[in-house]
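Bit of a strange request maybe. I'm writing a small parser for structure token strings and I need a real example to test against, not something I typed by hand. Could someone generate the tokens for this chain?
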Amino acid sequence: MILDKKVLGLSPTSLERFILRSRRAVGLKRRVNVLITGSPAIRALNREFRHKDKPTDVLSFPAEPYTKQAFAGEIAISADIAIQNALRLGHSAADEIKILTLHGLLHLAGFDHERDNGTMARKEAQLRRTLRLPVGLIERAHPTPDRRSARKPRTTRGRA
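Reply from user aminoacidic:
Good idea to test on real output. This should exercise your parser:
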């Protein structure tokens, strides 16, 4: 793991523990490298590997499938975007890094939310609850009616 950019409330030790717990929860037995960096570095990776010249929150790079190594792949996370998301959504930047890490781990385990008809979204929601994380990445992008527990309670003005 490389913490290229520091995030308040997130130590290398706490992130390593979270990665290990999450890998077990996902069922990913092989080792994973995680890079926490700034948006310029993520933008460069996104441009080089996905041909998209813009920063993004998380990128996953699975290891070559034909290798028989104890390595599942790598995850790169933009601390800058994680901090912005955390502020906007009302939770800690450390929690946002963990949400993005979980999302990346699911991709390394073979899930693909763009093609799996909601399988990854359901798995991410279940693991987010198990790992006691706020609303997950896919849930934010594609809200569903079962997100009531993650919403703020409504207020009724002027009603008795």
